[in-house]
């Protein structure tokens, strides 16, 4: 079924990248002028997990499979069969799969045949065959059945070869100078050519005459190919490269010598996860051949998670919007300059809204939900798709609520990004519904130790990650080295690791902290969550391993304790550096909110921010009012409201609230009148911070400054009150 992809018009447009490289429009398959007629580049789509690389390749396969030969292989999913022979490697496993897919019937053209590839694969498969083990040969030939069927359509043709091959081998004079693998391969090839190849197809063997040491004799080349394959190392790599080129040559020959118009466009090879070793082994022979001037006229699209991969060292790089109408690619002197690396960009807010409109056509969702999801996901297509589906299903009457029986749809105002993480969605009819947060983590971090990553996601930087590893992951860590291992894993998968957040991607960090909060399912205690954050609070406390007042208060707020945070802000309010004071407020209030599971009512922070707490609902010990004078009580309550407002408005799992925004601005203006020297800065915050929030930007520091990312440290400190960035002890420096 065709998928709805957003923000990928530069690829799928009628004059987009796919059309210009294949010569056919994706929709309707009309002819299009080639952008690079004689020398097309290999197009490599780059981007991290969840950026939609696989979705684009699958969509290309879906759109072109009826009009031109097309094949898709995931280079991370090619696994050996239950009983692989010595002739099986990932390359010899992938090539038959590609050939089989390329053989599928397309409009107005005969199926492609692969005689050269068939001969080469049979030659390397035969290297271990013996008279005493005919079943080995039977299994190997049976596994090659689909690709051999492109030459010989008789389904049982391979069955009769085995006996004839081994009989021919037994009748041969033994020559100790000739490797046994070569003798078996030669006997096999002779039998295959006699039994299955027509007179014209037998000429395909001559192509192997160009193999090293073949001297123009194709049969000798095939024998040498088998010998090199058996020896391993660089010789095996040479043999595998030649097999890749055999597939390319067969595919090109299918387009040569035909009547004009017999085939339309170019054949399409799609290689997912081509940054892997197998991917490079499939792509590099094509690149080298093209660099040497041999043209193949095949449209190759690949994907790579690693933007800085060595194989892309000399690629021509473009961002996706830049290739909408022309790639402006030019081949350079280096082999890898034959690559056009296209970085997939995040979806825009308009694309996210379109995804929500598709799942919620009547517009029941809150007006800001799509923008909130864009902020949370950063426009990562995987996250957008799942959260949009979750919102659409949640708003349908009779939808299944989390943890409840099937009932009416929840109130729209209760739908915030954090609530969508708890929803379940049905991805396929043959699969049970899955929880959104679990599915996102499974796809963004497949095969990883999520219990370890969830703990380390609470860390601010590498030092605190190692501290957590030592304290909370004793069975897995030696002096915190598991944190360094996780850091390397994240970097290898193109996830950012930063000084302010060990897990720097906002979506991934939110998902891991969500898992940390709810994984033990012990409401209201949350033992794992509490233990991790208590460990950090202790480390940041006076006498701890890395004492820092702002970081300690950040942890207090994570644990739901607001008194010390408000008291600290009150006591430091009259300090001279009001910009540093605002930085501390912003950093402390960036703490994850310890929300209850499945909470569907108003956010509790809203009532506090608006000054609507029930009178006497909290004892003085919770508010910090005990023993304060009248003016101090007034300031304490004012800062309590401001802290909760900033905490709520900065939360990526919540949505901005206009009434709370106005209240925050009001409190900042009131504080401006109370501050002896910093009234201008506070007044600017009252003006610019609401603008930042309404524009879905992080709070700027100093208020109104352009080009800041809003993360702790952009003001010269990580919210520490002006301490120099980069110090690690005593001031809560950037690696704390």
What characteristics describe this protein?
mainly alpha, two-stranded antiparallel sheet, 736 residues, disordered C terminus, 46% helix, six-stranded parallel beta sheet
Describe this structure as you would to a colleague:
This protein is mostly helical. The chain contains 30 helices and eight strands. The protein has helices spanning 9-12, 17-22, 53-64, 90-102, 115-125, 134-143, 145-148, 157-171, 180-196, 218-231, 233-253, 277-291, 349-359, 369-377, 381-394, 417-421, 436-444, 450-456, 462-472, 481-492, 506-518, 527-540, 549-558, 563-571, 578-588, 604-609, 620-623, 630-649, 658-674, 679-694, and strands at 42-46, 70-74, 268-272, 299-304, 316-319, 339-343, 424-425, 434-435. The chain has a six-stranded parallel sheet, sandwiched between helices. The protein has a two-stranded antiparallel sheet with strand order 7-8. Helix 5 runs antiparallel to helix 9 (180-196), helix 6 packs across helix 8 and helix 28 (630-649) runs antiparallel to helix 29 (658-674). 49% of the residues are buried.
Low-confidence stretches: 173-180, 400-408, 708-736
Please tell me how large the radius of gyration is.
32 Å
So how many helices? 30
Strand order of the largest sheet: 2-3-4-1-6-5
């Amino acid at each position: 079924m065709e998928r709805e992809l957003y923000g990928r018009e530069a690829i799928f447009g009628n004059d987009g990248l796919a059309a210009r490289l294949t010569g056919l429009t994706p929709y309707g398959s009309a002819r299009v002028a080639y952008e690079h007629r004689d020398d097309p580049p290999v197009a490599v789509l780059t981007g991290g997990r969840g950026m939609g690389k696989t979705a684009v390749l699958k969509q290309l396969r879906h759109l072109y499979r009826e009009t031109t030969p097309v094949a898709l292989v995931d280079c991370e999913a090619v696994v050996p069969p239950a009983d692989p022979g010595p002739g099986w490697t990932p390359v010899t496993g992938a090539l038959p799969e590609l050939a089989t897919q390329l053989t599928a019937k397309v409009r107005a053209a005969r199926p492609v045949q692969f005689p050269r590839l068939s001969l080469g694969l049979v030659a390397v498969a035969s290297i271990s065959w013996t008279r005493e083990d005919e079943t080995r040969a039977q299994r190997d030939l049976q596994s090659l059945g689909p690709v051999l069927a492109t030459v010989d359509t008789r389904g049982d043709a391979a069955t009769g070869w085995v006996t004839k091959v081994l009989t021919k081998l037994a009748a041969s004079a033994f020559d100790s100078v000739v490797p046994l693998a070569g003798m078996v391969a030669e006997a096999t090839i002779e039998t295959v050519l006699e039994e299955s190849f027509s007179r014209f197809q037998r000429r395909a063997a001559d192509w192997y005459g160009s193999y090293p040491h073949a001297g123009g004799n194709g049969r000798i080349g095939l024998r040498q190919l088998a010998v090199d394959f058996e020896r391993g190392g660089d010789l095996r790599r040479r043999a595998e490269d030649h097999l890749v080129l055999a597939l390319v040559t067969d595919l090109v020959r299918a387009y040569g010598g035909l009547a004009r118009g017999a085939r339309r466009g170019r054949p399409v090879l799609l290689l997912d996860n081509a940054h892997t070793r197998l991917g490079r082994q499939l792509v590099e022979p094509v690149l080298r051949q093209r660099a040497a001037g041999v043209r193949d006229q095949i449209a190759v699209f690949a994907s790579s998670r690693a933007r800085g991969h060595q194989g892309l060292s000399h690629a021509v790089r473009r961002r996706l919007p830049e290739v909408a109408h022309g790639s402006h690619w030019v081949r350079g002197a280096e082999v890898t300059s034959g690559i056009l690396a296209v970085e997939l960009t995040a979806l825009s807010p308009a694309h996210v809204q379109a995804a929500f409109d598709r799942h919620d056509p009547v517009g029941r969702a809150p007006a800001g939900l799509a923008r909130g999801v864009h902020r949370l996901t950063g426009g990562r297509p995987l996250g957008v798709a799942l959260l949009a589906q979750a919102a659409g299903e949640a708003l349908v009457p009779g939808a299944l609520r989390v943890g409840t029986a099937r009932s009416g749809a929840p109130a729209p105002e209760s739908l915030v990004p954090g609530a969508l993480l708890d929803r379940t969605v049905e991805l396929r009819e043959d699969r049970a519904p899955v929880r959104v947060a679990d599915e996102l983590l499974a796809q963004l971090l497949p095969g990883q130790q999520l219990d370890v990553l969830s703990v380390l996601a609470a860390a601010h930087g590498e030092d605190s990650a190692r501290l957590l590893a030592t304290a909370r992951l004793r069975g897995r860590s030696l002096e915190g080295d598991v944190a360094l291992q996780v850091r390397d894993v994240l970097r290898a998968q193109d996830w950012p690791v930063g000084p302010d957040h060990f897990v720097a991607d906002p979506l991934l960090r939110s998902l891991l902290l969500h898992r940390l909060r709810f994984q033990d399912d012990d409401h209201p205690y949350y033992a794992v969550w509490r233990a991790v954050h208590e460990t950090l609070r202790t480390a940041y406390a006076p006498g701890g391993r890395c004492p820092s007042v702002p970081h300690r208060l950040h942890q207090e707020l994570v644990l739901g304790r607001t008194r010390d945070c408000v008291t600290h802000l009150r006591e430091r309010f009259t300090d001279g550096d009001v910009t540093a004071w605002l930085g501390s407020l912003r950093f402390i209030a960036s703490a994850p909110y310890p929300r209850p599971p499945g909470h569907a009512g108003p956010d509790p922070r809203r009532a506090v921010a608006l000054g609507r707490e029930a009178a006497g609902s909290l004892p003085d010990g919770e508010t910090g009012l005990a023993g304060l004078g009248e003016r101090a009580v007034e300031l304490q309550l004012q800062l309590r409201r401001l802290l909760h407002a900033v905490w709520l408005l900065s939360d990526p799992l919540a949505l901005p609230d206009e009434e709370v925004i106005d209240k925050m601005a009001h409190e900042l203006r009131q504080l401006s009148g109370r501050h002896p020297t910093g009234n201008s800065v506070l007044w600017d915050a009252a003006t610019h911070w609401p603008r930042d929030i309404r524009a879905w930007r992080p709070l700027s520091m100093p208020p109104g400054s352009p080009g800041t990312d809003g993360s702790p440290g952009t003001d010269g400190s990580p919210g520490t009150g002006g301490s120099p960035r980069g110090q690690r002890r005593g001031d809560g420096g950037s690696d704390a």
